[in-house]
Amino acid sequence: MSWITERKLNWVQFLALKIIKTGKIPRHVAFIMDGNRRFANKQNITKKEGHSMGYASLRKFADMLINRINIIYFIDDRFEKLAETLSWCMDLGITEVTVYAFSIENFKRNKKEVDELMDLARQKFKRLLEETDELTKAGVCIRVIGNFSLLPEDVYKLIAQTMAVTKDNNKAFLNLAFSYTTRDELTNTIKDIAKGIKHSDILPEDINEDLISDCLYTYKSPNPDLLIRTSGEIRLSDFLLWQISNTCLYFTNALWPEFSIWDFLGAIFYYQRCYSDLQKVKNNFFPIVHNNRVSMYVDKLHREREIAIENIYLPTVQS
Questions:
Q1: How many CB atoms lie within 10 A of CB 78?
Q2: What would the pLDDT profile of 72-121 be if each residue is shown by its tens digit?
Q3: DSSP 8-state code for residue 257
Q4: At the N or C end, where does the chain have fewer CB atoms within 10 A?
């Protein structure tokens, strides 16, 4: 259950926002949401409750994409501060966010914890589907990237339905990396390119960095400008490794459920300090224009992926 309450800013927060907003703001921010289990141990609560807090923050961000004036809060007021933190994304003009919701490596955890995480995923995707009209009205597109073949069938169907009903929205984008690792992404990309060569859609000499980028799970999104990892871990955990070659990386000691507005603004300020150097690097790259053969193959591949989602989604709707 949730309710809507008006967001209120104190004068310090308002001033901080105005100051930060005078600088360069990233268009696309990625998060590695780490620290849920450590937070659970710290608070002497179950791992499921710790993960639930992390997913709740993700759900509240989707809510805030739906409504920039109001915030939809969950009953537990422990989420309020984090909900306010994520609302800054929209206030600052950040229109795309990608979060590492579930790594393929997480399947190696004990069965009880994995089952609990799948149950949480079911709950959150069902909640998103309940508010399809609001998502459409606000122009919010939900994208999920990852290896869906590893997921329970009912979870895959919920994901497919969520993606299908929001695919035409284009004002804000929430990308969920679920059942994802970069190694898996690149492995499947190589398989798709090899299949294209086998079927004579493309030639071996057509392979370049742009083709690989266009065959990744993230082909619809620009590369992140800023990546934030919580919990004090200084590693990337196989997340978007191809896409972040020119991304500003920011690591904070805050655990994900404790991530505060000042942690977030600190990350944005760090990005602004690094911006000029990042631009110098990006300006040295010149995009390669695909020839007609490659363009046709890429369009075909993307359409095949959309059809795969529709084939899962449509039987669900018809039933």
A1: 13
A2: 322 233 334 334 555 678 788 888 989 888 999 999 989 998 998 899 88
A3: G
A4: N
Q: Smallest Cα–Cα separation from 164: which of 30, 300, 61, 308?
A: 308
Q: Which element (helix H / strand E) includes 72? A: strand 70-74
Percentage of the chain with pLDDT > 70? 77
Which residues are CB-neighbours of 67 under 8 A, at least 6 positions away?
Answer: 4, 134, 138
The predicted model gives 302-317 an average pLDDT of 85
Q: Can you tell me the distance from the alpha carbon of 275 to that of 81, in angstroms, rounded to the nearest whole number?
A: 28
User: Quick check: 30 and 244 in contact, CB under 8 A?
Assistant: yes
**Of 67, 76, 125, the residue nearest 101 (C-alpha):** 125
**Is the Cβ–Cβ distance between 111 and 286 less than 8 Å?**
no
Residues 110 and 256: their CA atoms lie apart, in Å, by 21
* Beta-strand pair 140-145/96-103: unpaired
Q: Which amino acid is at 181?
A: T
The pLDDT of residue 5:
36
Report the distance separating Cα 237 and Cα 88, nearest Å: 26
CA gap 301, 296 in Å, rounded: 9
Q: Which residues of 141-177 are buried (b: 16+ CB within 10 A; e: fewer)?
A: bbbbbbbbeebeeebbbbbbbbbbbbbebeebbbbbb
By three-state DSSP, how is residue 230 classified? coil
Is 252 in contact with 266 (CB distance < 8 Å)?
yes
Nearest to 314 by CA among 114, 163, 179: 163
Phi first, then psi, for residue 259 (nearest 5°) are: -60, 120
